[in-house]
Amino acid sequence: MTAQPQPEYLTGDVAAINAFIDRFDVFLLDCDGVIWSGDHVFEGVVETLELLRSRGKRTVFVTNNSTKSRSDYVKKFAAMGIPSDVEDIFGSAYSSAIYISRILKLPPHQNKVFVIGEAGIESELKSENVPFIGGTDPSFRRDMTPEDWAGIADGSLLDPEVGCVLTGLDFHINYLKLSHAYQYLRRGAKFLATNVDSTFPTHNSFFPGAGSIGMPLVNSTGQKPVSLGKPSQAMMDAIEGKFHLDRERTCMIGDRLDTDIQFGIQGKLGGTLAVLTGVSHREDWEAKNAAAVPKFYVDKLSDLLKAA
Amino acid sequence: MTAQPQPEYLTGDVAAINAFIDRFDVFLLDCDGVIWSGDHVFEGVVETLELLRSRGKRTVFVTNNSTKSRSDYVKKFAAMGIPSDVEDIFGSAYSSAIYISRILKLPPHQNKVFVIGEAGIESELKSENVPFIGGTDPSFRRDMTPEDWAGIADGSLLDPEVGCVLTGLDFHINYLKLSHAYQYLRRGAKFLATNVDSTFPTHNSFFPGAGSIGMPLVNSTGQKPVSLGKPSQAMMDAIEGKFHLDRERTCMIGDRLDTDIQFGIQGKLGGTLAVLTGVSHREDWEAKNAAAVPKFYVDKLSDLLKAA
Q: How is its cofactor bound, per UniProt (chains A, B) (predicted)?
């Protein structure tokens, strides 16, 4: 049992906050639990982002939430008074689409993706010209029929061009979609997940997350998906490639030790900052078996405003 | 690495089959994968059951499928030409209802069960006078609304009398049900499962099973359910209590090593018989890390007819 070095607490310490900000050129920011909870933006966050930008910092929003596309996020940010551009946003749906189109390289006759997830995934797949079925298609949002049981079992209702199953957070998950995905995986389709967060923080509470929605498939097939969200380094590599960032001068800000903070540490970033407005608490990194220990922490993101 | 004793193969060996039948008074039979696959009864099974009964054997159907009640099973057996009585059937829905009413003993103000599952569970809970919500109630078979998100998160839409979440195979699983169950579990409700089979064999193929349908809750809460189906010995104890069986003179017949055969071995029954018409194959018990090794096996249940 080695005592892990504990993080530096910045809240209320003006000099420490200024030194922290000066250390970095780029801040990668998680959204749910850092910027907002659901549709409620945390107080002072708008001003904090303005402060960082006014000091010449690049702010990139890195989110595991795949239900929205990058352009959906631009709208959400705008509604909250935060100006942003599609290029400021890096979501797990986008990360997955890039991985499928540029790295996975499915054979032409098996290049379709069966999607469990919401519209955000579909938009990003379209932007990368990846063909897909499932997703928000109403014909998959219904009960099983006797014809489904027979046709899914014997394969006659399956699309032979599906070579990949991509699972994300799906608020319309049902047995029909799970049965299709299960059969595609049994027949050799690649298994990807936008992210494997166990819970989804919103409305000041938690709901089942993308990782939990995909678990029926993990359990029934015995296969684990390749995750394209935090803390997967596939996502970090894609971010680095896109933003040409100097990892030493980059800091990851997030609320979850097992996704955000681990993402920054495994990515060998110069810093990680935990905020206490989301999933993880101080006790979590003080625990002997902590998933990850951040380098810095604040009670809330807007505590950085003290630097002004 | 100890070589495990391998099972005796009975198919085609008349003397061995007769000796096998003579060894036992009671046969506990799994249904899916042994008697039938979906709505298709395997050839010769009706005659095999007649043979066993004609030799004075008691046949008890022990199934993890919780979608049907015992009386539903009587109808299904009748439609397949197999006479049976409610008392011949022991399902995981019934096992769960008995466990909740007689062993769990929830406090009066928290005695409601939130059900994820089909009508079979509801019938058996009713037969034991256990109050429940969820299940097949149409008001839980729909998409999430903004009011659901808010009311589930703050608890105003939760029933304060729910003290237990019971999960089974649910062909109408959705995010609304999972979100309710997740919040009840977070608030301290007991977590039970009718069974934890990873897959559901039907139509000569497989679909996601009850254990897989419950996995989003396991993953999001970090809790594991108490299972009331095979191989849980809670079910064996209940069967013994009901049928007053002599375990040494009882044989479990099934197609799954990790449920049926393990159930019989852990229950210290006199024998276990594997059939190859369902999930497990010969290679599964020949593997070094076999989940369980049966004492006997046949290609199919009707191979026992050779004894006639």
A: Divalent metal ions. Mg(2+) is the most effective.
